[in-house]
Amino acid sequence: MTIERFYPIGTPGQPWGHTEREQWRAQTRIQRDYQQQVVSKINALTDRFDVEQYGALSYDPEHYPLLCIKTKHWDETKPIVLITGGVHGYETSGVHGALLFLETKAQRYETHFNFVVAPCVSPWGYEIINRWNPLALDPNRSFYANSPAEESRHLMALVASIQAPILAHFDLHETTDSDEQEFRPALAARDGINFEPGTIPDGFYTVGDSEKPVADFQTAIINAVRQVTHIAPADDNQQIIGSDVVQEGVINYPMKMLGLCGGITDCQYGTTTEVYPDSPKVTNDECNRAQVAAITGGLDYILDHQ
Fold first, then answer.
1. For residue 75, how many other CB atoms are within 10 A of its CB?
2. Which residues form the Peptidase M14 domain (predicted)?
């Protein structure tokens, strides 16, 4: 069923122009500090990792440097693991889960892997607690040539600068109640279409690449995460967020075709994690630890199958 719902910006049925996008940006406000909450944690890792700036957002280059963390003692003989968080800046555990992995677990795996970690791809979105960038663009639908989203362009340039194949990519995300309450209605208004309500799954799930799903790898991640938080069940249509469930807690998307961050490499093992932070069953700490469990579960699987 299609439900007509008026979003307070724009005219129903008409895509936004420049004026509407400016109106949308004008009603956003800073709610937390990227420098204090993220950059300070990154800088605290410099004794154990190399920290590099791979760009800066033009909105405020000094306040929004784009930082990545790399294995300090890089070994060309080891495979590379890419970890990305905060592509949607409001998805908090993606950012802090990536940092928690570096703080608590990475050393255990550095014998086997080189790591490249971009923990907060969209720092403006982190501060505003929003899915979009200031141009009302979704960075996670913008990973393609000549991308209009500078967050996406900078990350693609970072990946292109890595002079070796990437074996695995963990892209850390959340699915939140605000997706249904704010972000999907805003998207419908922006694009001039009717909003069709959906349901938010209660629990963790992953999104694999439909072109190379690597089912057993996803299974290992799900089994590791279930030790920390609950796994999202399928709905009555045996789907999660409108996609068929291919195994417990797993759906697949065509990553490259959709311009998703999960498609920016040709890695053998790739997953997009989706934590559900709005469940009454979990805490913020458990959400962060679920992201860490997803990474370690996937890495343990790779070590067992290389």
1. 12
2. 30-306
Kindly state the average pLDDT of the residues 232-250: 97
| Structure tokens given for 143 | 């990973």
Q: What is the pTM of this model?
A: 0.97
pLDDT for the residue 306 = 82
Residue 82: CA count within 13 A, CB half-sphere: 28
Torsion angle, CA of 179/185/189/194, rounded to 10 degrees? 130
The fold of 18-305 is: Aminopeptidase (3.40.630)
- d(CA 22, CA 303) in angstroms, rounded, equals 49
User: Measured between alpha carbons, how far is 177 from 185 in angstroms, rounded to an integer?
Assistant: 12
- What's the average model confidence in pLDDT over 43-56? 98
Instruction: With H, G, I as helix, E, B as strand and everything else as coil, classify residue 63.
Output: coil
What's the pLDDT at 5? 58
Contact between residue 123 and residue 135 where contact means Cβ atoms under 8 Å apart: no
Tokens of 211: 């072109």
Domain ranges in the chain are 18-305
CA dihedral 124, 127, 129, 132 (to 10 degrees): -10
Of 175, 206, 220, residue with least CA distance to 273: 206
For 15-36, what is the mean pLDDT?
Answer: 98
Strand partners, 53: 67
Alpha carbons 203 and 215: distance in angstroms, whole number: 19
